Amino acid sequence: MSVDLKAAYxxxxxxxxxxxxxxxxxxxxxxxxxxxxxxxxTIDGVRKGLRYGENPGQEAAMYRLxxxxxxxxxxxxxxxxxxxxxxxxLLQFGKHPGKINLTDADNALNILRFLSSTPCAxxxxxxxxxxxAKGSTIAEAYDRANKADLLAAFGGCIALNRTCDKxxxxxxxxxxxxxxxxxxxxxxxLALFAAKKNLRVMKIAAMERLETYATERFLDFKSLMxxxxxxxxxxxPEARTADKLIVPEVTxxxxxxxxxxxxxxxxxxxDLLFGWLVESGVTSNSVLFVKDGVxxxxxxxxxxxxxxxxxxxxxxxxxxxxRYARETYATPYNELNDPVKQAACDAFAKETNGxxxxxxxxxxxxxxxxxxAEVGIREGVTAIIQPGGAIRDWDVIDxxxxxxxxxxxxxxxxFKH
Length: 417
Prior knowledge:
Layout: E1 20-27, E2 30-38, E3 41-43, E4 46-48, E5 63-67, E6 71-72, E7 75-76, E8 89-92, H1 99-112, E9 120-125, E10 128-134, H2 138-148, E11 156-160, H3 166-172, E12 177-182, H4 187-193, E13 200-203, E14 219-223, E15 229-233, E16 249-251, E17 257-259, H5 266-279, E18 287-291, E19 294-299, H6 305-329, H7 339-351, E20 360-363, H8 370-377, E21 383-386, H9 393-402, E22 406-409
Parallel strand pairs: 11-12, 12-13, 20-21, 21-22
Antiparallel strand pairs: 1-2, 2-5, 3-4, 6-7, 8-13, 9-10, 9-11, 14-15, 16-17, 18-19, 18-20
Helix pairs in contact: 2-3, 3-4, 6-7, 6-8, 8-9
């Protein structure tokens, strides 16, 4: 019996979620209620929201905040009428978006809200960035972000913080992407995208005020397997400028003062801050490397700090070897089927330490021991940013001083689960 396994991915699943959702926070006689309405689009005559959830067979719905307010202590959450992702205008769609398409776009915007001062591109895959870069133009930013991880960028969500022009669209159409999000698109860019029938093109005109979200919190829910909920206020990185960084200086148990010997250069500082802001959108435990305004290696979701640093390092080597294979032999590394050519790619990656020489190392939590930092230092990392606060901060400081590596503390952890 033949079964069409592809059919499940082509379905538009009905959902039974109600048109309106209300969430109330009650304290005695005081009630604060948030009111949401379900989002839907009409595509090919079908009025529908999300195709399905994370997998076919999971009903899903997306809601936008339309009324109410919430004040918890001295924090007021984002107010109704200022929707961004939930107000995305579908200029080209092919088919209804799924839950993953929207959450990938959301996490890309979560990163971009801190990087509005310069053209920047974020490529997200399975809710994690695989390439983030700045550029003098949005085309350059996208090109650099894409080359950071050509393999993972396949089928990803591309988010741009500037109008997508023809040059950028030409670069995007050379590859396969699921979603492109931007504040606007030129007519010739849309004409190029028209050839990609299943590419979802989303215009978010309100992205021009994306930076206003950089200082505002939203209500973050985590659903538990027994139907319970955990509610928290969203994370905001506080160290967004150089004056918010801390010069590492600690006293060990013996009373000896350990202070970092070298301060970051201007270029190192730029990469450290850029990487720290990208870090806010990376699943923990995570470590990433940044060089000249582009991510070089991103390690995500690992259980130990040394392990995730090694993952980020190894990915940098593999991605550079793959890029060399594509540029030199017009073939992905995994498809070369030629030991000599593969060896040449590996040699190139080894010669340049995976592109990590001179890079900045970013960790979302402190290094409990020096071994995590040493993973990057052995590859030529010259600067490190991390929260600080470990019992053995003194040992990590000594490690950096021994190798003339600059380091700064943020004083704030950046976990994301």
